[in-house]
Amino acid sequence: MNPGLIVLLVVVVLVLALGGWRLRTDGRFKAASSPRAEGSTPAEQALLGQADPERAPQPISLLADTQWRDDLGEKATLLQFSSAFCAPCRATRRILGEVAEIVPGVSHIEVDAELHLALVRELGIMRTPTTIVLDADGQEVTRAAGAPTKDQVLTALARA
């Protein structure tokens, strides 16, 4: 068999595998890894200082040191990172805006990733669009890389 044909077949298989993986994972919300994760046992809460509310550390909003610190929603905030030439970002903006209009207490904040690189690095944003669902205190509940559907956003908000 021709070596060029073998290389072509390997590349086609790899591209199809990558495409399938992206199709399955794009826009899916994943739970945030935080000490406030649901289901923690009383022993874990005691170790984290959460058993005694007076000793528990006060949560600090992800947006505390930014221009959006006063724009948090009463119940949740949809924080979107996008860039100028990102086509899925426009669809995500529309979906998140619609959800923020129909769900009381939810706000939508869009951040231009290119203009706010320090925040992008701090939050570990790897691609646009990335949507982070924040609770009322500004703490991350879940995030999705890629364009989520309206149903995925509403399900993620239910967790917040």
Automatic annotation (TrEMBL):
Tree of life domain: Bacteria
InterPro entries on file: Thioredoxin-like_sf, Thioredoxin_domain
GO molecular function: isomerase activity
Domain Thioredoxin: 46-160
Gene source species: Nocardioides daedukensis
SUPFAM superfamilies hit by this protein: Thioredoxin-like
Keyword Isomerase belongs to the record: yes
Signal peptide segment: none
This protein's UniProt keywords: Isomerase
Protein name, entry field: Thiol-disulfide isomerase/thioredoxin
